[in-house]
UniProtKB/TrEMBL annotation:
Pfam family, one: LRRNT_2
Superkingdom assignment: Eukaryota
Keywords: Glycoprotein, Leucine-rich repeat, Membrane, Repeat, Signal, Transmembrane, Transmembrane helix
Record localization: Membrane
Membrane topology category: Single-pass type I membrane protein
Domain Leucine-rich repeat-containing N-terminal plant-type: 31-49, 71-86
GO biological process: defense response to fungus
Signal sequence bounds: 1-21
UniProt-listed SUPFAM superfamilies: L domain-like
InterPro entries cross-referenced by the UniProt entry: Leu-rich_rpt (IPR001611), LRR_dom_sf (IPR032675), LRR_N_plant-typ (IPR013210), RLP23-like (IPR046956)
Name of the protein in its database record: Leucine-rich repeat-containing N-terminal plant-type domain-containing protein
Predominant place of localization: membrane
Amino acid sequence: MDCVKLVFFMLYTFLCQLAFSSSSPHLCPIDQALSLLQFKNMFNINPNASDYCYDISTGVEIQSYPRTLFWNKSTDCCSWDGVHCDKMIGLVIELDLRCSQLQGKFHSNGSLFQLFNLKRLDLSFNNFTGSLISPKFGEFSSLMHLDLLDSGFTGIIPSEICHLSKLRSAYLD
């Protein structure tokens, strides 16, 4: 009888290891993919955008290109250019759209604010001219890095930004 228990225990351990060490990535939740697609559709690609942007964090010029151009429903959003997901649960935790040639009005109630787990958000070097920095940025409770540099935001910095207790760097000019 003890031998049977040992075999079952070993089989159980093997199956647990197999389940938790699976190399297949988790898929992006559909609500997050739809939020990203709605965000993408709020903007146009600016064909006259500069070819290069200066990355202040590395001190290097990077090539400008439309990162959102090939985002679509048929692929997992975790594989989209500029989107990074938590490897364990698949939630979007980073959005790097710097120098993405985005142009248009940034809406304070936009779908971007449905990505509650963001730790890093970089919208620098785009053209959101005349848009205000939304107070909703203060709702990203996990946000550690926020970069809105040289993207045409105007107005005062909302006090809600102070709610970002994990924020380590912010470029808002």
